[in-house]
Amino acid sequence: MRSVELTIDTAGRRVVDLTNDVRAFARESGRDGLLHVFVPHATAGVALMETGSGSEADLEELLTRVFPRDERYAHRHGSIGHGGDHLVPVFVASSLGLPVLGGEVTLGTWQSVVLVDPNRENDSRRVRLSFVGAE
Predict the structure, then answer these.
(1) Taking the mean position of all CA atoms in its chain, how far away is CA 130?
(2) Which residue has the higher pLDDT, 76 or 32?
(3) Residue pair 36/83 in contact by the 8 Å Cβ criterion
(4) pLDDT tens, 20-63?
(5) Would residue 59 be called left, alpha or beta, if left means φ above 0 and alpha means ψ between -120 and 50 degrees?
(6) What's the pLDDT at 120?
(7) Please, what is the end-to-end C-alpha distance for the chain in angstroms?
(8) Per-domain residue ranges for the chain?
(9) I need a surface site. Which of 12, 50, 94, 97 has the fewest CB within 10 A?
(10) What dihedral angle (degrees, nearest 10) is formed by the CA atoms of 44, 27, 107, 90?
(11) Residue 96 CB neighbours (<10 A)
């Protein structure tokens, strides 16, 4: 098994495309296996989605609508509405498993790997990439 930890700056962005990093890591293996993407944070997740078509803005709007920045949350430390950030990983998983064939991640035509991070109080996120080769 191989793994690496990336540090991602999310300042000014709530959706960050990780696809190039994921593809580069898979290529280093040069073989078949499984690539695991994990975000060890209580307010962020990773997902597959189409990017570059406006979907990032749509997702940001959806997060704002579903998790409003107000005082409704029992979890109240931090800024107003931060409690909603802690609910995001319930809807956006903290990890993904991706098949790799010959060192290439087998994503669909329009699929990208994205970090989803609504937390406005921490702009530095860690993402752990791990590769387990097929036997």
Answers:
(1) 14
(2) 32
(3) no
(4) 999 999 999 999 999 999 999 999 999 999 999 999 999 999 99
(5) alpha
(6) 84
(7) 11
(8) 2-133
(9) 12
(10) -20
(11) 18
